Predict the structure of Amidophosphoribosyltransferase.
Amino acid sequence: MPPAHPFDTSYLRDSGDEDKLKEECGVFGVVGVADAATFVALGLHALQHRGQEAGGIVSYDPEAGFQSARRFGYVRDNFTSQDIMQTLPGELSIGHVRYSTSGNKGPTAIRDVQPFFGEFAMGGAAIAHNGNITNANALRRELIERGSIFQSSSDSECIIHLMARSLQRNIPERMEDALRRVEGAFSVVAMTRTKLIGVRDPLGVRPLVLGRVGDGWALSSETCALDIIGAEFVREIEPGEMVVITEKGVESHFPFRRVASRFCIFEHVYFSRPDSILGGRSVYETRENIGRELAKESPVDADLVCPVPDSGTPAAIGFSLESGIPYAMGIIRNQYMGRTFIEPTEQIRNMGVRLKLNVNRALIKGKRVILVDDSVVRGTTSRKIKEMILDAGAAEVHFRIASPPTAWPCFYGVDTPQREKLLAATMSEDEMRDHLQVDSLKFISLDGLYRAVGEAEGRKAECPQYCDACFSGDYPVTPADQVKEGFQMKPAAE
């Protein structure tokens, strides 16, 4: 049967990206430039890797008022249309690209697509949220009992309803009031008729940066989206900081209690684009450093180092440089792979990874191959790639993974399988090696990963410098909703 929804890719389950952890969204906003929505569309295009299900843009023009457009699918297929962009006038605009981590896990409903908009006594406001609210279920129940009517299944809508119930005098203050009730992770870009607002949660789990574009300003999940509009990167929004940007400039304050930051370390490993800057560090260089650390920790005698495209490429280069083993493109990615252009029959489903990746047989045959990938989640893709490499005549297959074993689900904005479906949650490294049927399997250590991101002494167990809950089970914010539903936290003694 064809997909039930035009952008449903469930029939490609385990065909490549479906065995990767998913970032759920990217946010972008611009103020003080003509045709701001066009700049937002370009920014969202650069952030497409953070969410491919759907996208939305809201703009404000004094004559037209607030205008919005929300669409399923890629930015390039929707927000390059002149007909759509003409409906989004004004010098102030925000946007969002989405991959769901909460709410409806089936086909996305258009009502779940952000930005969300609310009309308040002092005027309208729109918000776009990157992250996940870990007490959303409790907040939603409370708000519904008090008369709120929800339009979506998204946790992010809680923020709008909390703002509506606040007694503060203006929208930025109401947003502060609302976000003090929220637990979990949030980087928010919002807008009123005159203001562009950016906020990060006190832990700074998800990224948010500030840029200068002409006489205006931009907020973005990543610096790569500033580059596409020719904006100058100014700085990162700090954990716990709120910036309110008007024609007068940028006002900054810190409405939340200060705590030690816990930025998501997986942003360095996989989520962010390699041409972005995080914490003053090139993501590409960090991933190359991860490969170097991996080569030091887990050397192996082999003929070729091959990346699993595309996310394993920088780490594979680092592994090659450190080990002296030649780097080679042993697996080629079909860059034009989207949804299959023919009906997804059972035969097409069984093709799986081959729809997206193909082995360079002439290079691989008879060689001892080191495959470098960013992570192992369920293990289904790793096993299929191994089979492809052996079918091409490889003598040996060694996996080197540029992150520690992913043994715990994320509740801060990443779509993670339930814990029992994570391979590392139920198997040791040796058991995973036997399950994947490879000659060797090694993950970078948690300390090695910390060294690669610039922490020379490794991870500080008493106060980790990053959020690494997906590897360690050490959750900086208790996922209250999940615990109430039966999720078992890691015992303190472990």
Q: What stands out?
A: The longest helix spans residues 283-297.
